[in-house]
Protein: MurR/RpiR family transcriptional regulator
Amino acid sequence: MVKHLLTRIEMKMDSFSKGQKRIAMYIEESYDKAAYMTALKLGETVGVSESTVVRFASELGYEGYPELQKAMQEMIKEKLTSVQRIEVTETRIGDNDVLTSVLNSDIDKIRRTIEEISHDDFNNAVKALSKAKEIYVFAVRSTSSLATFLGYYLQLIYGNVHIINTTSKSSTYENLFRISKDDVMIGISFPRYSTTAVEAMEFAREREAEVIAITDSMASPLVECANNVLIARSDMASVVDSLVAPLSLINALVVACVLEQKEKVKHTFQELEEVWTKQGVYTKREKEKDNK
Structure:
């Protein structure tokens, strides 16, 4: 018997009625919301009757809607293991072209990010960064690349950035122990969520620092620790985390920070260009061949 909810849905998708397909698609995209809806509320949300939702649960092999709801809630608590990711991805893609399927999925995640992100939280995050005495960017494992990318540009813009990407508790708190109310911490984590990230953000919040979360949904454990939450939809491609939408969000955050202090940043980069040129940091155009 197939246990994982998303795998059950994909295997049954072709046999569903139109109403059941609407339920299935909603759960695939927003199970973090559906998990806490009654059968009646879920039906109203997707435009079907309560009885259709109950029959949908039975069609998937559950004894009733409460068991389906529990399955969705379990997905939120622990998300997917690596083995489950492979299983679900194989079912989703099937015989379709892998390249096209993955790229289309990434396009969809960016579209959903545009629809769901809070512009107020985004603008508040930019203002907080511009005023911060020190900025701490925390991310581990697969998301550490996002911290490195974001930290690199914030360092060029502000010059007061600390990148923390260790899973060691001692190293984490050694890097964070000076954080104060004048500082900002950005915590980045996506499923499967990092316990260390949550604890580090809680520590920063206790020190009264401004805390910004970059994560995938309001059900994320990072949300409770944050003053501002920036939602970017992520997804899985087998064992790989798709971080296209989060990276796009980070690009927007960097651009907004530049525009917030464009004269200061312009002066900084003018000086940097002079240093880069003098030190030969970047290659010049290839010399004309044969001295032509």
Remarks:
- The chain is about 60% helix and 10% strand.
